Amino acid sequence: MSATAVRTCPLCEATCGLELTIDGGRVTRIRGDAHDVLSRGFLCPKGVSLIQLHEDPDRLRTPVRRTAGGRFEPCSWDEAFALVDAGLRGVLERSGGDRDAIAAYLGNPSAHSLSALVYGRVLLKALGTRNVFSAGSVDQIPKQLASALMFGGPLTVAVPDLDRTDHLLVLGANPLTSNGSLMTAPDVRGRLRRIRARGGRVVVVDPRRTRTAQAADEHVPIRPGTDALLLMAMVATLFEEGLVAPGRLAGLCDGIEEVRALAAPFAPERVAGPTGIPAGTIRRLARELAAAPRAVVYGRMGTTTQAFGTTASWLVDVLNVLTGNLDREGGAMFPRPATGDGPRRARMGRWRSRVRGRPEVFGELPAACLAEEIDTPGDGQVRALIALAGNPVVSTPNARRLERALASLDLMVAVDLYVTETTRHADVILPAPSLERAHYDLALSAFAVRDVANYSPPTLPLPDGMPDEWETLLRLAGIAAGQGPDPNVAALDDLVAAATAQRLGVPPEALAGRRGPERILDAMLRAGPDDLTLADLEAAPHGIDLGPLRPRLPELLSTEDGRIRLAPEPLAGDVARLRAALEDARAGTGREDGGLLLVGRRDLRSNNSWMHNLPLLVSGPARCTVQVHPDDAARLGLADGARARVRSAVGEIELPVEVTDAVMAGVVSIPHGWGHDADGVGWATAARHAGANSNVLSDEQAVEPVSGTAILNGIPVTLAPLASDGARTVSDRARRVSGRAGTAAAAPRPA
Fold this sequence. Notes:
Blueprint: E1 2-8, E2 17-23, E3 26-32, H1 45-48, H2 50-55, E4 64-66, E5 72-74, H3 77-94, E6 102-106, H4 114-127, E7 132-134, H5 141-151, E8 159-160, E9 167-171, H6 175-178, H7 188-197, E10 201-205, H8 211-214, E11 218-220, H9 227-240, E12 253-254, H10 256-263, H11 268-275, H12 279-291, E13 295-299, H13 301-304, H14 309-322, E14 332-333, E15 348-352, E16 359-361, H15 370-375, E17 384-388, H16 392-395, H17 399-407, E18 411-415, E19 428-430, E20 439-440, E21 450-453, E22 455-456, H18 469-480, H19 489-504, H20 516-527, H21 534-538, E23 544-548, E24 564-565, H22 571-587, E25 596-599, H23 615-618, E26 626-628, H24 630-636, E27 643-647, E28 652-659, E29 667-669, H25 684-688, E30 715-721, H26 730-745
Parallel strand pairs: 6-7, 6-17, 9-10, 9-13, 10-11, 12-24, 17-18, 18-19, 25-29, 26-28
Antiparallel strand pairs: 1-2, 2-3, 4-5, 4-19, 8-14, 15-16, 20-22, 21-23, 25-30, 26-29, 27-28, 27-30
């Protein structure tokens, strides 16, 4: 007897609704939920692959521990937590009780987990360490930081009102492939089509002719790393041609005249050469933006993971303000999540990393600093790492150094589904459920293009003996707090719930009968702006539509004076660095004949590295290739399908060449998240599609100075065809590069 269940897809930011057919306790089919209030039946291949993820024979279902021989063997949950308790106590004893000897790394999937978002914070508080790292500093922190400096809060991020705009300008983003990023928007293709159908215009600025660029009215190629120059030139054009019209925001803004002065040296004629965009095109882009009835500028990872990521992110919203398109229908608007997001002031710079002195941002240090905090001796050296759903070896800079650093730790504990390039260094890996856990997009609803609320109960029961993810995290928190290997998880949960209810002003008795993240979610909904309860969402399995985005300023502002800071420090101060870069570029300083610039790219079937172990998502042509323009391929003697060596200042990899005019001349593109041939990794399918790790080419010392975000785009590289005797596979080369780290990973931990 088959049954049907609905749930929200947790695999990317689109949050599509799924309809699952369950037969004999197994999910046998997945299709789009036609009644979902946000996705309306839209579904990409990732959603369908949930069946393969759930049933993957390589997925961990019991804890595993490292043996003396460096291999993993199953163990009981009690044995695993006893090892964690003993390991943490040992690290603290040897460090004299220094909590900073422990570090935590939070991976991207934790942002898609209700349990991780609620109880991950509890774990971090119990650890008491300042060494917290996450995938945010190789992704979106520049946008959050720029927004916080302008508007006051780290989550006060404006998103494009796609459903009502008349003009969309996209920089460094490919939402048809990413399904939105810091923009929760299922079926972006359909939404862009509707913009054009109502007479609007879509323009994409990108070094590559992406899927989004192909669907746009215009594609404007740009030299990697120069988005801030283009945006500043557009700002200069608005002032020069009298097109500045902030509308009702004029009375809320400070710094308009300061922005005018900052932009003056960046006339389109001066930035045309460095950006590769003609001055006339730059001026036209600015005029069209200003003339459109409702317009919005949107930038993402191509703009954030570069040398001027925070500056570019700031200028995106400067343009939205100056054209009167911030906080208005069809412009850049602030979602209103059902769980509430009242004004909250951002905090940063309260402490600095031990080795490099990088300041924390929103309670985190740059991921680019993780390896050095582990492998640099001295007081405060990190000797233990707790990794939650992260694979930094393939997602953060200079992967080889991080591999060696992880292998040297006294203790590593991972909460993960797989033995990955990162977790292969762990002493204990604790698995988490998949379809057996509840789901609510606590983080992603803050970036949705329409206000909705959608809760998914567990689709399947937990396997016998497996705790829910929240129970695992609370048990780890109890251990970190010194309560031993078997703390009272129920009591800890009650403490968290009581503190949450008190903070939100919700009567505790209203939450009776619930436990875990559902109890916390119920409290947040009750305290939110829409008077919802979790029972309301349980009665509406396809979600509740709370309506289109609506203006939220000035009440959302949490700056000290409640005003928009259009020229905040340190962003205004960083313009001097941008001005110097412009002069260097115009003078040709640092250019090398024949040099190429590396950019990343994303594939619809590849959001996180563990998706490469799902046959459905890696089928078809190879996706881990280096894309090269035909002119560069001819000049360098590169053949389509042949292998080439890509070399940067810090590393080199080998992978197949894909000759295509979709990438502009002088630019090469390699996707992130690959390189699955390291010894000891437990991914059979991924190993057959290993690819190469592009982050071997990135330098952990190269960070954007304002936010500390790793520079992953615009990296200078050289390409060369492999020698005729180089019939090695990509896998062979990667083993040579990481051989020492692989050997170290298999060795016992130091005493």
